[in-house]
Amino acid sequence: PQQQQQGGGRPRGKRNNRSRRGGNRNNTQSQQGGDVANAPPASSAAAGARGDHIEEAPAKAQQTRDPVRPINQESEFFYEIDDCRFGIKRGFVPNMLVDGVVFVNQKLRELLFEELQHNTAGGFLPAVKQVANVASLPGIIEASMGMPDIHSGYGFAIGNVAAFDMANPDAVISPGGVGFDINCGVRLIRTNLTEEEVMPHKEAIAQGLFEQIPVGVGSGGSVKCTLEELDQILNRGVDWAIEKGFAWPEDKTFCEEEGHMKSADASKVSQRAKTRGIHELGSLGAGNHYTEVQVVEEIYDEEAARAMGITKVGQVCAMIHCGSRGLGHQVATDFLQLFDKTMKTPLNDKQLACAKIDSQEGQNYLAAMACAANFAWTNRQGIMHQVRDVFSKIFNKSARDLDMHLVYDVSHNVAKIEDHLINGQQKKLLLHRKGATRAFPPGHPLIPSAYKDVGQPVFIGGTMGTASYVLMGTKEGMEKSFGSTCHGAGRSLSRAKSRRTLQANDVLDHLKKLGISIRIQTSKLAMEEAPETYKDVHEVIDTAHRAGLSKKCLRLRPIAVIKG
After folding, report:
1. CB within 10 Å: which end of the chain, N or C, has fewer?
2. Could you tell me if 257 and 393 are in contact, meaning their C-beta atoms sit under 8 angstroms apart?
3. Rounded to 5 degrees, what are φ and ψ at 245?
4. pLDDT tens across 41-83, in order?
């Protein structure tokens, strides 16, 4: 493998008297609009992506809009809620049970409407259509929501949040609402090192990480296990890693679900999925996955930063972004194919294949999804072990002496059963967060005691040349979006278009000028993951902050990037 080394419109008609989450409960349905995807789940190009966080449209799925409406008629279905939200009326696509609500500022909004007008979603349906189609799924409650980084994906948009009422016997679970890379997530590791101390060793750190962390499509893992041990990983997650000595006992405290979804049942995971996953544990993969060395550039909330052990500008951290690799991808593929054959619910989009939550098929998917989530936490743990080892070797100190503690680990491709207050009533909901991050407020019982006073940390990766952010969960976000926020910058160009319009050497030269050391497996990925291919992360963060979904705590600047 080649190794590169270098140091639309505006929504119309404001509507009032809406709930905090949006969704007019008195609209009548119209049968105008609607989209039907004809490609079966297995034909998705994502199915060939080796489980990495890539969702590309099926080759033959240039979906049609049926019937086709001019953009001015489409716009009649949009209404402004405030300067960070617009709504999508029922009737925009058939069978909508609730409205759509999308959290974007004016600049991000224009990108969405340009995509809708010119059908530039790279073969998928435009994201606003996908949000609307999700609003037609049985059992959905309040609204189908889009986070500030929303862009088109398989079935659900990436950045789509939807809650389903567990008390409704018709409520469904949809693998498209979780994604192919189950429990793709981000973890942040702090150190007691400063930028001044690290800069003389920056190239050595980048090279050490590149050598010790397997990267790229189909890469083998740094953690070896037997099939019997793999079942233990699927059932127990980070607890297995602690037993094997490549996780500290306290690491699990700072993972969502403590790194272990208890509903996991390895017997529900196919042999094919296990075969794909067994050799990939402790590997980064490709796509937008990365390990970065970062420097604290600005602190917005000193109290929250102190709670995380981050005390000053210039402090060095490491961020890891990856998921469940081929195992999670195969779990998604297996159940999309099964649901496509067994579901009896008529759908606007075949990519939304689903099953009733309480059906045997639905329960089996939730158990298998939990296994993939446990695999992903263990995978990130294996990578973190290598990060600690590299720093320890270079600075000739133990990882504990370098204070390399896990700040937190967040998931952004998962479905979870959660309790939420809806119109004064406590309800048990199944939350689909696809390309969206849980962001619980201060005092919530499911966040670590260290963060009880400040809220749950949320990590928002930028691009390999731009800042990342740490946000904190808020009470307002709990009320507006079921405690959910964005997960990254969000793509604005497809991978194919990036390869057509950018040159790898130009991208790498630009990163070098920014003082970023990069190790990347292929020049193709440099074009696909260039900063220009993503939305402006500062606009995304500003929208999440102003909308109250989460609040800014830290900004981090990359100085070394490892990608597949």
Report:
1. N
2. no
3. 90, 10
4. 433 433 333 344 556 544 444 343 445 677 778 889 999 999 9
> How, if at all, do strands 99-102 and 85-88 pair?
antiparallel
Assign residue 301 a region (left: φ > 0; alpha: ψ between -120 and 50; beta: otherwise). beta
Q: What is the chain's alpha carbon radius of gyration, rounded to the nearest angstrom?
A: 22
Report the C-alpha gap between 68 and 224 in whole angstroms: 53
- Sign of the Cα torsion 359, 42, 161, 138 reads negative
- The model scores a pTM over 0.90: no
Q: Mean pLDDT lowest for which of 309-323, 338-352, 362-376, 512-526?
A: 512-526
Give the containing element (helix H, strand E) for 290. Answer: strand 290-299
CA atoms within 13 A on the CB side of 486: 36
Active site residues: 487
Write the CB contacts of 193 (distance below 8 Å, at least 6 apart in sequence). 315, 316, 391, 395, 402
Decide the pairing of beta strands 140-151 and 99-102: parallel
φ/ψ of residue 553, rounded to 5: -120, -50
The answer to whether 169 and 356 are in contact (CB under 8 A) is: yes
CB 208 within 8 A of CB 392: no
How do 413-422 and 425-434 pair as beta strands? antiparallel
Query: Using one digit for the tens of pLDDT, what is the confidence trace for 532-560?
Result: 777 789 999 999 999 999 999 999 999 99
Using alpha carbons only, what angle is made at residue 139 by residues 438 and 269, rounded to the nearest 5 degrees? Answer: 65
CA-based diameter of the chain, in Å? 68
Tally the residues of the chain.
Answer: 564
Residue partners of 458: CB distance under 8 A and separation at least 6: 410, 437, 438, 439, 470, 471, 472, 473, 485, 550
pLDDT at 382 over 70: yes
How many angstroms separate the Cα of 432 from the Cα of each of 69, 356, 379? 30, 14, 22
Is 467 in contact with 297 (CB distance < 8 Å)? yes
Tell me the torsion sign for CA atoms 183, 560, 288, 51. Answer: negative
